[in-house]
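Entry 14: structure prediction run for Probable farnesyl diphosphate synthase. Input pasted below.
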Amino acid sequence: MTPSTITFTARLREAAEVVEASLETLLADKVRHGEIARPARLMAAMRHGALGGGKRLRPFLTIETARLLGRDGEGPLRAGCAVELLHCYSLVHDDLPSMDDDDLRRGRPTVHRAFDEATAILVGDALQTLAFEVLADPATDADPAIRSDLVLGLARASGLGGMVGGQLLDLSAEGRYGPADLAEADVRRLQMMKTGAILTFSVEAGAIVGRADAAARGRLVEYGRALGAAFQVADDILDREASAEAMGKRTGKDQEKGKATLVDLLGMEGARRECRDLVEKAQGALDGFGPRAEILREAVRFVVEREA
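Run finished. Output tokens:
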């Protein structure tokens, strides 16, 4: 490994540990101001769905983007945790019998298997609303305009024009609502919405709390979009090549359901070439930031080279 790769790995691990500790605090049993009660079963299930696993890539991107802009500390951490809470909600709901019907997530029983389906639905609801509560809290940023920008950005990335809309397109791609014959443009749009939108906002959230000017924010969003696209193509490759043990979840699902991916449309070598092109595009968007952006450059390399 190169020195920059070693530094990246250490920073990713450090961020994961700090995020885990912060999530544990947010998901503690203690009732907070304005709450009536925190039901024990709900809290246990929320912790099951959000703690003890995952690379925490999304909050890492928020933290490191803010750090690139000279902003560190509690604000970027809380913004990153909000994105992670939203992401965890999406995984809980994605695993439900009505969606992907998965038994494993991060090597453990999914929430609806460990508890029950109704509890899992409520866990997703609670994680989602907690994400927005965290962003709206003055503890995240003293400037209400910054908090408003964060809430608006996460709502758009996760809602009907982003992740949720992408999930509906994903279900349609399985042929649930009629014949599905997706062209390359359709697959790219689906992936940009379902997976890419939240990854892009993870970077943009760091730009927001880091007070990036319009030009810098635009370049960082461009980087985030390329990284998000690379992540999904790499995920499609892993779904074909990696074992369920390595991934901590069932693999080969897209093939089972006859759902087209870029691996199908471009071929395996074409998909790998696509990853390389997206890495180049993402890194090119960071050119104006100089050596300070090396961690973010390593992040996009990590996304396409990961083995799980």
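Notes: The first strand starts at residue 104 and ends at 105. Will compare against the previous run tomorrow.
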